Amino acid sequence: MSFDTVIRGARVVAPGGVSVCDIGIENGVITALGASLDGAAEVIEADGLIAMPGGIDSHVHIAQPSGPGVEMADDFTSATRSAVAGGNTTVLPFCLPEEGQTLREAVAAYHAKAEGKCHCDVSFHLIVIKTDPVTLGQDLPALIHAGHTSFKVFMTYRGMALSDREILEVMAVAREQNALVMVHAENEDAIEFLRDKAEREGNTDPAYHARTRPVPVEREATHRAITLAEVADVPLTIVHVSNGEALEEIRRGRARGAKVFAETCPQYVTLTADDLDRAGFDGAKYVCSPPPRTTDDWENIWSGIVGGDFELFSSDHCPFRFDDSAGKDVPGARKSFRNIPNGIPGVETRLPILFSEGVVKGRISLERFAAITATNHARLYGLKSKGAIMVGMDADIVLWDPELTRPIQQADLHHGSDYTPWEGFEVTGWPVRTILRGRTVMADGTLTGAPAGGHIARGAPEILL
Ligand code: URP
Ligand code: ZN
Ligand code: ZN
Fold first, then answer.
1. Which chain residues have CB less than 5 Å from ligand 2, an ion?
2. Whose CA is closest to atom 4 on ligand 1?
3. Is the full-model pTM beyond 0.90?
């Protein structure tokens, strides 16, 4: 047998288990796993390293319209540069229509923005904010058919939130067309009530972002989203679950037989609401929705990661610059937390944080790490040739140095934001080489070539439960 590339001697994390073997790659595809593979044009010596499936981050926001005067810190070049530096080979950004755009026009515009710019593969989820007959009857079915087989609906954010009836209408399309609905579960009316009250009382600092989005707001919406999915008889994903009470609703839903999948993110096991209370305006760096909670909730979320309740560990990368009037410091943001753009950067740090906090600290196995950072994302969102080190799959592989200990520092990161919420956070384990369809795209923190990523049309979701 001959190969373009052989990766020699790594501990390989494959669906069948972990073993030391060689990985043979031909034409961008894994063609052999075994001992002493010869006949390769390129040999990558990987003694002492761990070979994992390239990370798939199925929840990122890139170049997304974010309101008047606000600009996301990443375009497709910088976001995917940051993704591969952090060991990812595929990201799934959301496609949000701009004012007056149809969903189909929005998707075409995103394709144009991404074309030729991506250092890793990408595939777009849709965001459904309108439920008119053209969107539901024409655009959505056509886009699903073209490989956009998942879409997000919001229960919060004025202008984006759908009513229960509208969510049911969207779910009905998902059922008919075999697509998957993702839900951002927070009760907008309750948030508005608390936000107005806080402002009336002069409580306008960033900390009040978290105080006006308390756990019950997320718990109630999580319960309601699952209930709506039961009514519509569809599976759903609850994204960015932040706390134990929302997780409890998911467990209860599953016990009733609901097909509910769950995602969580690094911020819910490493940051707290106290971070939003940092001196001056620094708390704005941590404003995201749902907000980080408490250290007790870290333990609740870990129990779900360890126990198998979470299929997905994503970043919810949604980067804004801090020291920037088109970012966190947009006019009005210092007057009220209401105006601070929601979201934090994290596509590059997701995997090192979970590796360090999860694998190195003995909470999860290498196999579970691979499942919740890559394999489940591929299966649930219909990326048929990705997410596992297996013969016949795309050679999307990340090599880890499991012993490299370093602090996370903005100065070392590749995103377009000017800060990281994890400045100084020490991790052990770091991705040292990222291989996209057989080609090395990052080695030792340096990107090794022109953008080689493309858009992937996805198949039907695989219902994992
Ligand atoms: O604060 C966040 N998470 N911003 C991104 C948009 C979303 O809700 O996922
Ligand atoms: Zn969301
Ligand atoms: Zn998000």
1. 184
2. 343
3. yes
